[in-house]
Amino acid sequence: MNFSELATQVLEILAALAAAPLFLGWVNQCRAWLQNRSAPSLWLPYRSIRKLFYKDAVLAQNASALFRIAPYIVFGAMTVAAAIIPSMGTRMALSPVADAIALVGLFATARMFIALAAMDIGTAFGSLGARREMMVGFLAEPALLIIIFLASLLSATTALPAISEYLATQPLALHPSLAFTAVAFTMVLLAENARIPIDNPATHLELTMIHEALLLEYSARHLALMEWAAALKLFNYACIGFALFVPWGVATGNGPLQILVSIPVLALKLALAGAGLALIETLSAKLRVFRAPEFLATAFLFAVLGLLVHLLLGA
Amino acid sequence: MGNTPIDMQLLNACAALLLLLSFAMLSQRRVVSLVNLLAMQGALLCIATLLLAWRTGNNHLYFSAALTLGLKVFLLPWLLHRLIRRLQVYWDTEPMLNIAGTMLVGLLIVVFAFGLAQPISALASTATRSAIGIAVAVILLAFLMMITRRKALSQVVGFLSMENGLFFGAMSATYGMPMVVELGVALDILVAMLVLGVFFFQIREQFDSLDLHHLERLREDK
Prior knowledge:
The complex is a heterodimer. Chain A is mostly helical. Chain A is 70% helix and 0% strand. Chain A has helices at 3-34, 44-54, 65-84, 100-120, 124-155, 160-168, 176-192, 211-214, 220-245, 256-283, 292-313. In chain A, helix 4 runs antiparallel to helix 5 (124-155).
């Protein structure tokens, strides 16, 4: 471990923490433009997080310690995840600590604690949200794992920075397998981040909500951490997508110049990805909850097809 | 990984897309979209044939590409669309197995097909031998579609998709069949399509529906 690796690491964590609400704000803004609404400010997520931190927390009388500790665990898991995803440079101090499978485990940990905390109070909505979240989760997780397995097969390693570095240095070629898994990954991203075909992030409509139902009992700093963690999760997923499917422009060496170049590249990728996400959300209608398994089975199918095509055609 | 020539990469992409289209057909409930998917499959097949003809210099492959274009991209889908309009069937009823289940069975079938094709690929000497597995998978997936669908029209689409798979298999294993065989098969399909078209009207007249489970029971004539 040397100084530049440490610097890259710290920079990446700080960038993720700072830019995640901005990315969320950008997606919301694009969505509003596409739907002919006047757009909310780009800084709205920051303001609401700040506002929530100033408020006094209200807890239900029968809330256990788990309920209070869950936001910190979820936020912590997302921050650690941000630390092992190569968003700017692939030479990071913490990259030997955890590989891509551990990353999926981190997401699963966060999901489990959110679900447990939602059931902790014992309200109907919390349990309902928790059950739906687990349903989406247990279907999305194998798809995500298979996507990562394909990338690992291509690059002969499960460490995400090494995968990204390998893919970034390959000559440009058509990879049907990677194209399939990219589609699968987009679908998993939509499902895992409570985006439109599965869940509508902008509504509290009780019959359809998943993510909002989980957070219904939280207030003030707990809610702020949960919202921030959700923004971080979206940011993390976007960065995993960049690392696997558009790794160009990421710094593969230690030079400070490379890192400097990779910052605007990452910003550009995020801007395009946010606009694309908003476009997908505008074009598609929300699915019935009972259609969600079908949606995720399709994602799984795309991922496995990618894997099979790679095994057969070697492409 | 990056050293395969660009036309082989395109061929591989075509093969992968063929497989994808087979799955899209498995999951599609609307008959009209099913026919469009079939036309797309034909178009992909045509592109793959052209690429292969260009790569190997086999002139007869150009003819079979033209035949594919005319028959499978334009004529057959047009006939099917006309049938759909005349018969007024736009939706298939819920298939025997739900869509997600069908997809998972389909995945198992693909794995089975790849295993099945491995010894054949090992014997073949063509540049496209690795695509034989995909051709077998397309054939078996079309089988699966014919098994799980109830409506006669979807079953015919499955039948035509199976023929596409066979054509692709012949192409990737031996660079296409002799011209005479190909012409014969094309004519067969066309005639089969016409005969089945007449059949549909008969079935509907008899049972007031195109649902084939009415045919499962034998009834004595009064």
